Amino acid sequence: MPIRKAVIPVGGLGTRFLPASKAQPKEMLAVVDKPVIQYIVEEAAASGIEEIVFVTAIGKRAIEDHFDRSFELEYRLEQKSKTRELETIGAIGKLARFAFVRQNKPAGDGHAILAAIPFLDRHEPFAVLFGDDIIDGPEPALRQLFDVYETYQQPVVALQQVPKNEVSSYGVIAGTDVGGGTWEVSRFVEKPKAEDAPSDLIAIGRYVLTPGLVAVLATQTAGKDGEMRLADAFAGYLAQGGRLYGHQFEGTRYDCGNKLGFLKAQVELGLKHPEVGAGLADYLRTRGK
């Protein structure tokens, strides 16, 4: 069964980007000429997603506006015969069908996903994309996860190999390599110390969730920080005998949830941009002299 629906939680405060995120969502910060969230939605659409549920919070209205029509702007562009710009903004709202639901309190990514469940078919798998990661590659990273799901019909997480000193910031897996960059996961450990980590393979913000996994998530209780974590649901699912797969996607990930990753995305995607790429490359060469 093709996966056609996705959930994108965007309720975070973005405190690492203050003061830039004080009056606008961090997901709306631009990389070259598009907000981060648009890159993520474009990846979902290119993977075959047709319906997207954003889980939002107060102060996130700009995301809704971005994926809605702007009649006044369209009118002004049409009057000025700016056809290319008109087509560009008109295409944004056609990437998918969008719904928006408020997370009634900041209670973790697992809680955010459960807030979207009434908008989904409870008997179908769906995708989850977190709003920080831009992944650039020849094939959408999410599409690669769908290929794994189609083979195994089980939940799938996106994996990336990182230096061992970085694993303490992520969920880390242990498992068996089943070929083609795919792993059958046997353990899922959230933010372990480097010396305790079962591997150097971390889970990043792309997932395929199944009804069975969601049923486990719904039984989870909040941790000491008051938040319900998707990572705990993965661990619980495995403990109950569920099968979970991970896939090392092909592509370059830019963690736009931190300033350095955001700047790397600006440079690398700027170099690929048809309008500014050549000029940026020339500038960087002068900086390197």
TrEMBL record:
EC class: transferase
SUPFAM superfamilies: Nucleotide-diphospho-sugar transferases
Example of a GO biological process term: UDP-alpha-D-glucose metabolic process
Gene3D superfamilies xrefs: Spore Coat Polysaccharide Biosynthesis Protein SpsA, Chain A
Chemical reaction(s) catalysed: alpha-D-glucose 1-phosphate + UTP + H(+) = UDP-alpha-D-glucose + diphosphate
UniProt keywords, alphabetically: Nucleotidyltransferase, Transferase
UniProt-recorded Gene Ontology molecular function terms: UTP:glucose-1-phosphate uridylyltransferase activity
InterPro entries: GalU_uridylyltTrfase_bac/arc, NTP_transferase_dom, Nucleotide-diphossugar_trans
Keyword Nucleotidyltransferase among record annotations: yes
Domain called Nucleotidyl transferase: residue spans: 5-267
EC number: 2.7.7.9
Family recorded in the similarity comment: Belongs to the UDPGP type 2 family.
Protein name: UTP--glucose-1-phosphate uridylyltransferase
